[in-house]
Design brief:
The chain is mainly β. The chain is 6% helix and 38% strand.
Length: 356
């Protein structure tokens, strides 16, 4: 069997950059299905803003019938809902692309999961009213700074089409795992958008604006866009829904094991639908077997855990691979959809193991 982690040793975040702070979850050492805030991955474009909830107000303006300024107390008094869901950075696994791409070289830990509590965005928009002709809802964060491609100062802002903004599970969250959202994850208010990559879940909300056109901010039309061609911008697509994906958590890549029976464990997730099957290959993809899904009853927005018992009875080197299939019959591809900025990597996961 694989060696257990010594009880006195605790995992920590894996640093990718310090300014701005970008750190990934040690996903290979996560056993539960909720992530402690201290181990939740951190993705930033700029420095952290300094905010307090005592003097916090949320403006909603633009193409609305009655512009409003909501106090925190007003927001807390609106009926809330709690949603358990995956938040995955669209650059998760970027470091695995071949040919290599520029950007934070995330491995497999730019993904975390937990319980978010807040009020539906639609409840706030119903209180302001939406004018006829409204097309998108722009959410602006308090984080700001200069981009590498411009001397201009920008805040991090993203838009949602009206139907996604009005989805009953798109919420303005104020708690994570039954505690106020930590500063580094969006305190005091964070947008939570199920099914989409986490760039849509804007942190440290400064204001919400309803517009009658397509938002043209740089984090909408320059970043978080699939550029499938190296030399031009033909056939670009916006980054939205999370791709079907899986990750092997144990054993570790390049781990040396003894002959015997070993459990291969991991997680799998998707944007739309649910995971219905996870397959494992221990011979580099020549043959595949079904893994056991250990928590199929989970909700629509969560990852599932899976396990596979492997009789490793012969010494040698092995390539272990996994692929997940969701309820829309989407399966992880053998090769990822290469794109210039390195978004949405979801090729079959693989590790190499040596049996001695």
């Amino acid at each position: 069997m694989s060696k257990p982690l010594h009880s006195s040793v605790k995992p920590s975040l894996i640093v990718r950059s310090l300014q701005p702070e970008n750190q990934e979850t040690p996903i290979q050492f996560i056993n539960g299905d909720t992530i402690d805030p201290n181990l939740f991955y951190r993705r930033n474009h700029f420095s952290y803003p300094l905010l307090t909830s005592s003097n916090y107000w949320l403006p909603i303006n633009g193409s609305v019938e009655i512009p409003r300024l909501f106090s925190m107390q007003e927001i807390l008094n609106i009926p809330s809902k709690m949603i358990k869901l995956v938040l995955e950075c669209s650059g998760d696994k970027r470091g695995l692309f071949e040919p290599k791409v520029f950007g934070e070289q995330w491995q497999k830990g730019a993904i975390s999961q937990g319980y978010w509590k807040g009020v539906p965005l639609r409840a706030l928009l119903e209180l302001t009213g939406i004018k006829k002709g409204a097309k998108e809802v722009v959410v602006e964060g308090f984080d700001y700074g200069k981009r590498t491609d411009s001397d201009q100062v920008y805040s991090f802002s993203r838009s949602l089409p009206l139907d996604k903004a009005l989805h009953p599970d798109t919420i303005i969250a104020y708690e994570y795992n039954n505690q106020p959202i930590p500063l580094k994850h969006g305190f005091p208010l964070r947008l939570i958008v199920p099914q989409w990559y986490a760039m849509a879940s804007v942190k440290w909300i400064k204001q919400i604006r309803v517009i009658e056109s397509e938002f043209q901010g740089p984090f909408q039309v320059i970043d978080y866009v699939y550029y499938p061609n190296r030399e031009n911008n033909i056939d670009t697509l916006p980054v939205t829904t999370i791709n079907v994906n899986s990750t092997i958590q144990k054993p570790l890549d390049r781990e040396v094991l003894t002959t015997g029976f070993h459990f291969i464990n991991g997680i799998a997730w998707t944007g739309n639908g649910v995971i219905i099957k996870v397959e494992v290959s221990t011979d580099g993809g020549k043959s595949w077997s079904d893994a056991k899904i250990t928590n199929q009853k989970k909700g629509n927005y969560e990852w599932i855990s899976w396990t596979f018992e492997w009789p490793a009875l012969e010494k040698g080197e092995y390539t272990i691979m996994t692929k997940a299939t969701d309820s829309f019959n989407r399966t992880q591809p053998a090769s990822p959809f290469w794109n210039r900025k390195g978004y949405g990597y979801n090729s079959v996961d693989k590790i190499k193991i040596k049996i001695e």
